[in-house]
Description:
Elements: H1 3-21, H2 24-36, H3 40-48, H4 55-63, H5 80-90, H6 93-112, H7 122-127, H8 132-135, H9 138-143
Amino acid sequence: MRLTQHIAVSSIVSLGLYAWTQSFPIAISSFLAGFLLDLDHLIDYWREHPIKFDLIHFFKTCEEFRLVKVYLFLHSIELLLPLGFLAYYSRSPWVLGFLIGFSQHMLFDHLLNPVFPYTYSFFYRWNKGFANEKVFDIKKQSNG
């Protein structure tokens, strides 16, 4: 899913959350988590292109699934359980909002990106050597 799409979806979800809960912390942390999760793409990009950062090349490389290795540390479904426990036990509206933003980001990435069933599992990516062509369904991307 593209960054602009994440921002649009996060805006809608966060406005809905605010209307429902009247909680600014829940709404703003959900909004921010809903698209800032993509910061982990920067790590993967810089690892392969360390000399000069080019914003247009960065977006093109990531959106067209052209990286050789994809670690995507934040795009890990394994983070859902500890975040859920943290939200429950801390009773923090900020953490709850982050959990909601994280969840909607992962859901839409899974639905709209060319993925295999376990793409967003860190352990699956690790097992596949973080190789882009084994983590993302590149054939589906080129046909879509």
